[in-house]
Amino acid sequence: MEREKWLWIKISFGVSFILLIVKFYSFYITHSTAILTDALESIVNVVAAGFATYSIYLSSRPRDDNHPYGHGKIEFFSAGVEGTLIMLAGLFITYQSIYNFFFPNDLERLKEGILLISFTGLVNGILGLTLQKKGKKLNSLTLEASGKHLLTDTISSFVLIVGVFIIYFTGLAFLDSVFALLFSIYIIYSGYGLVRRSVAGLMDEADPVAVESTVNTINQHRKTNWIDIHNMRVQQYGSDRHIDLHLTLPYYLDLGQVHDEVEELENVLENNWPGVMEVFVHADPCLPDKCCHYCQIKDCEVRKFPIDTKIEWTALNMSKNQKHYHELI
């Protein structure tokens, strides 16, 4: 898995560098500020791909004494750096657009520029879709962020092409700065989205996708002895996932039986995750006067109250720090 991440991020870096040269050549022959915006964003692509290459390398390293949870969180930092660079490029493009509105350049060879930008946009689109697909498959935020960035670059490139076509056919040179300014706003917004996601990961904000997939896995293998699961916390760093939860078991089980139930739940979670999974389970005894109402053990010999409900396990009630009998109160 890590080797595949490494391969795709190196491909991204190499392709980004080549397209950077093509875009700056396109600006050189056209003197178009709108095309310059695309070229400047490609500088960000190259820098971000270089940083992403290092983050993929670091996140693949095993945990050590100084990093007991591994190095996967570097991918959040990588996405944040990439988003920040995108926003800075957008701000510079905004400045350049306003400047060229008052001091315009003479536009030349727009046909050749359009063809070159079309080529780079097509390549970025194919690579961006591939990186997003691989990022989801390999649980890599860095690959997903790089893919999203390239798709953003693709969209801006093709919108830019439309703008340059309009300039070419109308002869209205001032539109070059107008289109560049509109692109800069879009680029800044896209960068903000990456920074927001990065900060959320670094601050251990709950990941709804990771939580829901964990809940679904547990529900698929739910056992009657697992009376309830609560106080569940799910954190994901790159391809590493960490889960803490409390498991309510019948109070009459001996220590060996409790161990077996805990180990079975851990195996269920670990076997259904392609990356590294770390599970910590705290076992709680049931409270007969409160848990009997929803306990699903039909042949329980110490039952005090009949079963009168079955509580569905959801991300909401499994995340609360309380046994599920509180839902019946």
From TrEMBL:
<feature type="transmembrane region" description="Helical">
    <location>
        <begin position="79"/>
        <end position="102"/>
    </location>
</feature>
<keyword id="KW-0812">Transmembrane</keyword>
<dbReference type="InterPro" id="IPR002524">
    <property type="entry name" value="Cation_efflux"/>
</dbReference>
<dbReference type="InterPro" id="IPR036837">
    <property type="entry name" value="Cation_efflux_CTD_sf"/>
</dbReference>
<dbReference type="InterPro" id="IPR027469">
    <property type="entry name" value="Cation_efflux_TMD_sf"/>
</dbReference>
<feature type="transmembrane region" description="Helical">
    <location>
        <begin position="151"/>
        <end position="171"/>
    </location>
</feature>
<comment type="similarity">
    <text>Belongs to the cation diffusion facilitator (CDF) transporter (TC 2.A.4) family.</text>
</comment>
<feature type="transmembrane region" description="Helical">
    <location>
        <begin position="39"/>
        <end position="58"/>
    </location>
</feature>
<dbReference type="InterPro" id="IPR050291">
    <property type="entry name" value="CDF_Transporter"/>
</dbReference>
<keyword id="KW-0813">Transport</keyword>
<keyword id="KW-1133">Transmembrane helix</keyword>
<feature type="transmembrane region" description="Helical">
    <location>
        <begin position="114"/>
        <end position="131"/>
    </location>
</feature>
<dbReference type="Pfam" id="PF01545">
    <property type="entry name" value="Cation_efflux"/>
</dbReference>
<feature type="transmembrane region" description="Helical">
    <location>
        <begin position="7"/>
        <end position="27"/>
    </location>
</feature>
<keyword id="KW-0472">Membrane</keyword>
<dbReference type="InterPro" id="IPR027470">
    <property type="entry name" value="Cation_efflux_CTD"/>
</dbReference>
<dbReference type="InterPro" id="IPR058533">
    <property type="entry name" value="Cation_efflux_TM"/>
</dbReference>
<feature type="domain" description="Cation efflux protein cytoplasmic">
    <location>
        <begin position="215"/>
        <end position="286"/>
    </location>
</feature>
<dbReference type="Pfam" id="PF16916">
    <property type="entry name" value="ZT_dimer"/>
</dbReference>
<protein>
    <submittedName>
        <fullName>Cation diffusion facilitator family transporter</fullName>
    </submittedName>
</protein>
<feature type="transmembrane region" description="Helical">
    <location>
        <begin position="177"/>
        <end position="195"/>
    </location>
</feature>
<feature type="domain" description="Cation efflux protein transmembrane">
    <location>
        <begin position="10"/>
        <end position="203"/>
    </location>
</feature>
